[in-house]
Design goal:
Elements: H1 16-39, H2 48-55, H3 61-72, H4 79-103, E1 107-108, E2 111-112, H5 119-142, H6 148-174, H7 182-208, H8 213-235, H9 244-247, H10 253-261, H11 264-273, H12 279-292, H13 294-314, H14 322-338
Helix pairs in contact: 1-4, 3-4, 3-7, 3-14, 4-5, 6-7, 7-8, 7-10, 8-13, 8-14, 10-12, 10-13, 11-12, 13-14
Length: 339
């Protein structure tokens, strides 16, 4: 490892769990520096919610995919890409906190989001903690150790991720409590998940490794395909007892496709459950969705997209780090099998 944090050799590509430990340690080290700065003004408690969310788990998916994009394009295992990964996790923390304000959530990953014990104060704390996470995300990105030229080249990708995430969240609110047209539902999913979780991080990592434009475009294509498969697979969790999409009235693709395939009365059954339905109305809606044929459609699409993602990886094989390609194949297979 050089003084700048750049790796002097190619190393084994860690699996997701191993990587999560390493990138979390990098992030914690950075937050300790911030905490020491805030202590001078007795303001370090503003980090409490950020700490709480980071300690509650999470797969560090976006940092990991950024890392894999970097390794695919020839980058080594070094501290700089870990810091960029930490930056993405802080942006994700910002998005989660603001999303929880919108959803009026009281917990995240089983952890309390309460700071002051009253609704107004708790919401304000979540907004401010989210704002701080966003600001710290920027700081960690720009102090990662990559050259200013590379960071400026990567910035449009990061900016696109951020803007598309906000646009997707806005559209989710627009269609909240409605059975969206399947095209609108898919558009929201692509904005909120495919771009933000897969395409953007992969392209960001490849760019920071100095990849050529054609390679970056191939990585983007891979990310779009895998990201859509991932979101559709996530939609299917509704049938396994994760009822947030129904209870919170989210316009998921599964619900949209089901609504397209049933009659008016059955659509009304789904609508009754959206945005705060009772246990009975949720069960009735799930029954309608189950019988609509939408579940089979989405499962078929997940399998097809996962297969396409594996095929897209083949175009990267000549220039990519072999183990990074293997890790991405494992992710594609996991998406397919868990769908």
């Amino acid at each position: 490892m050089t003084a700048s944090g750049e790796s002097t050799e190619q190393s084994t590509v860690p699996d997701p769990a191993e990587f999560a430990v390493v990138v979390t340690a990098t992030l914690k080290e950075f937050l300790e520096v911030v905490r020491d700065e805030l202590k001078a003004d007795r303001a370090e408690s503003v980090l409490t919610l950020i700490d709480r969310l980071l300690d509650s788990g999470g797969g560090r998916t976006r940092p990991y995919l950024c890392y894999l994009g970097y390794r695919l394009a020839g980058g080594g295992h070094d501290d700089r890409i870990l810091r960029v990964g930490g930056s993405l996790e802080l942006f994700h923390t910002f998005a989660l906190l603001h999303d929880d304000v919108i959803d009026e959530a009281q917990t995240r990953r089983g952890v309390s989001l309460s700071t002051f014990g009253d609704e107004t104060g708790d919401k304000a704390a979540m907004i401010l903690a989210g704002d701080l996470a966003f600001a710290l995300s920027d700081r960690l990105f720009w102090s990662s150790g990559f050259s200013p030229e590379l960071l400026m080249k990567a910035m449009p990708i990061l900016s696109e991720m951020r803007s598309r995430t906000a646009a997707g969240q806005f559209l989710e609110i627009v269609y909240s409590g409605q059975i969206a047209d399947p095209r609108e539902a898919r558009s929201i999913a692509k904005l909120k998940t495919a771009s933000y979780t897969f395409e953007g991080p992969l392209a960001l990592g490849a760019t920071l490794a100095g990849a050529e434009p054609e390679f970056i475009e191939n990585v983007r294509k891979l990310g779009r395909i895998a990201g859509e498969a991932f979101q559709l697979r996530d939609d299917l969790q509704l049938m396994d007892g994760e009822n947030d999409d129904l209870v919170l009235g989210r316009p998921s693709t599964l619900i949209a496709e089901a609504g397209q395939r049933v009659g008016v009365e059955e659509r009304d059954v789904i609508l009754l459950a959206m945005g705060g339905g009772t246990n009975g109305s949720v069960a009735a809606a799930l029954d309608v969705i189950s019988r609509s044929g939408a579940v089979e459609l989405i499962r078929s699409e997940v399998a097809s997209l996962s297969s396409q993602a594996v095929d897209a990886l083949q175009t990267l094989s000549p220039s990519g780090e072999p183990k990074a390609i293997s890790r991405l194949k494992e992710i594609a297979v996991w998406i397919s099998e868990s769908g």
